[in-house]
Design goal:
- Helix content is about 40%, strand content about 15%.
- It has about 325 residues and is an alpha/beta fold.
- It folds into two domains: about 230 residues, Alpha-Beta Barrel (TIM Barrel); about 60 residues.
- Helix 8 links the parallel strand 7 and strand 8.
- The structure holds flavin mononucleotide (FMN).
- Flavin mononucleotide binds next to strand 2.
Length: about 325
């Protein structure tokens, strides 16, 4: 039906505090073909920060997982690329989009887009020192849209896979993602572009997949509490009818997510899991009562029992 689709890889967007090993595995189970770690500070790695090194961990049975780094200093980024390459990720991704104030004010993340000369040096430093393919995830501009220039800079640095979130850095997460930049896709037949921003349903994904069949789709917030979205899109791509999510799969997924969180973080995993379970419960009947209970409990068995008995219909 969609024989024109050349590459069906679905990608889980990197999200700080969210795309850790447990969540990447859960999304992988439902069809995310490629996942990316949370962003890791290049300086943190070079200075030996334990917290930064912990973020590099990729489990043996994970799928194709890349490690995302951020920074503004070409030399530090070069050293970080060497360190990260030793972990043999599928690729190293350069963050050129993070809008957080403390990141941007250092000229890192989205801040890279306000100085394209330094941006180019950063990109080249990583490409020259990486032992694995390098990709870049960026936005359409800092305060306005100059995506054509940004793509040129990334291309000139030798990068052939570019993810673009269709907002400016200044927009943060407000407004609507703008896909005008896609008009440049055909200019670069040797680049794999990744479309990102506000893809929160299989319908929206299919609109973009049909329109840009050579590109990949990347999903962030649409996967929160909803790793099932990848399977829904995969089904739509095969032309199969959508089916309702069963209570069993919903419950088993949350339980597995809890188990992975405990395995990875110890008891602290119960606390970190609260936000995820809040998302899993979003929009469900009587969910406030269940959330209130779970957010107060530190007892795994008790939480699982409450979820087991919860009839979401
Ligand atoms: C909580 C949160 C954390 C994020 N952390 C990162 C990050 O570490 N690196 C990055 O490149 N983008 C990060 N993003 C941006 C997402 O990867 C994505 O570009 C953005 O959310 C738009 O896609 P969406 O509409 O599918 O969520 C983050 C987004 C959210 C909501």
């Amino acid at each position: 039906m969609f024989s024109q689709i050349k590459n069906t890889d679905l990608i889980l967007a990197p999200m700080a505090g969210i795309t850790d090993m447990p969540f990447r595995k859960i999304c992988g189970r439902f069809g995310a073909d490629i996942t990316v770690t949370e962003m890791v500070s290049a300086r943190g790695l070079v200075e030996g920060s334990e917290k930064s090194f912990r973020l590099l961990y990729i489990d043996e049975d994970e799928k194709r997982t890349g490690i995302q780094i951020f920074g503004n200093d070409p030399q530090v980024m070069a050293k970080a690329a060497k360190i990260v390459s030793r972990y043999r990720p599928e690729f190293i991704d350069i963050n050129a989009g993070c809008p957080a104030k403390k990141v941007v004010k250092n000229g890192s993340g989205g801040g890279l887009l306000s100085d394209l000369d330094n941006f180019e040096n950063v990109l080249k430093a990583v490409v020259e020192n990486s032992g694995v393919p390098v990709t870049c995830k960026t936005r359409i501009g800092f305060a306005d849209d100059y995506s054509d220039e940004i793509i040129d800079v990334i291309y000139e640095a030798g990068i052939r896979k570019i993810a673009i979130h269709g907002r400016t850095v200044k927009m943060g997460f407000k407004g609507v993602a703008n896909y005008d930049w896609c008009k440049y896709i055909d200019k670069f037949p040797d680049v794999k572009f990744v479309l990102n921003g506000d893809i929160d349903s299989s319908q929206r994904a299919m609109e973009l997949i049909e329109r840009y069949p050579e590109s990949n789709i990347m999903i962030g917030r649409g996967a929160l509490g909803n790793p099932f979205i990848f399977e829904k899109i995969k089904k739509a791509m095969r032309g199969e009818p959508a089916s309702d999510l069963s209570y069993e799969i919903w419950f088993d997924t949350i339980k597995e997510h809890y188990d992975l969180m405990l395995k990875y973080y110890g008891d602290y995993g119960l606390i970190l899991m609260r936000k995820h379970v809040g998302w899993y419960l979003n929009g469900m009947h009587d969910s406030k009562r269940i959330k209130d209970f779970i957010f107060r409990s530190n007892n795994y068995e008790e939480i699982i029992e409450v979820l087991r008995q919860y009839d979401r219909d």
